[in-house]
Amino acid sequence: MADAPAESAPALNRPPRKKRHPLSGAIYEELPGNRVRVTKGESWGIFDGFTTRHIEGPLTYADPHMIIWVGGKPVEGLGHRAERARGIEIVHD
Amino acid sequence: MALKTVGDQGRLTEAGYRSAGTLYQELLDQDSRPVPEVLRLESPIQPGVTRVPAEQYYSKAIHDREVEKIWKRVWQMACREEDIPEVGDYIVYDIAHLSFLVVRSAPDRIQAFHNACLHRGRQLREFDGRGAQEFRCPFHGWCWEIDGSLKEVVCQWDFPEVNERDYHLPEVKVGTWGGFVFINPDPDAEPLEQFLGDLPRHFERWDLANRFKQAHVAKILRCNWKVAQEAFMEAYHVVATHPQLLNGIGDSNSQYDVFGNFSRAITPNGTPSPHLRETPSQQDMLDAMFDRNLDTPPLAEVPPGMGARQFAAMLSREGMRAVIGDEADTYCDAEYLDSFYFTVFPNFHPWGAFNRITYRFRPHGDNPDECIMECMFLAPWPKGEPKPPAAPIHWLGPDDDWADAPELGMLARVFNQDTFNIPKVQLGLKTMKRPEVVFASYNETKIRHFHQLYDRWMELE
Question: Do A93 and B313 touch (CB under 8 A)?
């Protein structure tokens, strides 16, 4: 199935996730429609936030795990700042 | 030509090669509170890489051998005691093609039986249940008391040789530790206490029996059970699989130890990864721990003169005070911050201190390419209040997103990163040209230790 254009997707109802990759310095930014924009230097690419497949742009590969982190499905109810600041959610796996 | 060393450059210590970053024992020296003796223990594995044949992860013959050599003989965690709180409560514990009924047969007695009717072999129960007064086979109606004694045989006159002594439900050994119920199908097995060895000493300060099961999520994964659990037995994968954490996690400077039938990893938080080229600020470390996004305000700001590690421990300690009262002051910073993840052979992974995680990994039926991964959250509850009921199991299919289990919080998204890899590992193992995989001398200590025990149990040595 062809990917729907990002412009037609409904806007996010929360601030977009946005991260700098701690090793490469690339910026990963969540877009509406389960997409992630990656900007590295002068280059950029847009990727599917679930499968990590490249959608458009000259940058055709980016860190798949960073794409998933920025673009993956949100967890309902997560983001209660007070609870997270309590340190209960200090996790890796 | 020598290989280029990426990230952590490593260094030679008296114990062998270790990370160039701050070692865990050095971090403990900076703790604001006295550190428990068990955290000072060091018991490294013998140096050397371990090679494991790739076919161990997909061969049906290996799977069949695991059933005979391991699952029919080893102590294995079946459930929590609070999963069966009342007399007559039972769970069905399946492992490969084996099935067991674990039942509370008296207020202070838990028994386990082979889950099959002694008439024609039908499974007695397929699902967990409450308040059973008997186990009646749905096929022809043979019936047993919940303590396994034969109660009724339909048309008993047609079975003149069937008697209670010979047709008691075959029982398997049961043991308990830390609020967990273990079973062992081998009648000649050593006692659970002997099998666990020194493990209870490690958990003296973090008594898992005094926790309640806050969440329990099980997901079917398209990979072998060993592929799945080995993805959760080291912090070596963090640099590639969880890069968003690197500013606030000590990955390659984790500590790994082995003790008899179990192993331990300790991964510090609130300290930067030794892989980073530049040391992040204390605020950067805290932001990574709290998953702060760019262009958003911080969840909390590190006070001047305080480090991220000490500050995060303080926040966590104050959070726990609401639950455990002033006992919160008796725990050191490390106990609030760091990940203490144990592996008890073959598939049980309790975590220490206040991290709530316990994992279990097991084959999904007899398909060596599938497994069941489970994550339980075990949490303390406020003193003086009754123990909350255990959360029921929440099943996710292989194509479900971990975020469909919001009870896991942020961990659900971390799992999505892990499980993005592992079905592809299962495929890659079948197409890789080399016949074996290789595990690091130190960072993959726990997996090496597992395979030492595995080879012994499988009689592959």
Answer: no
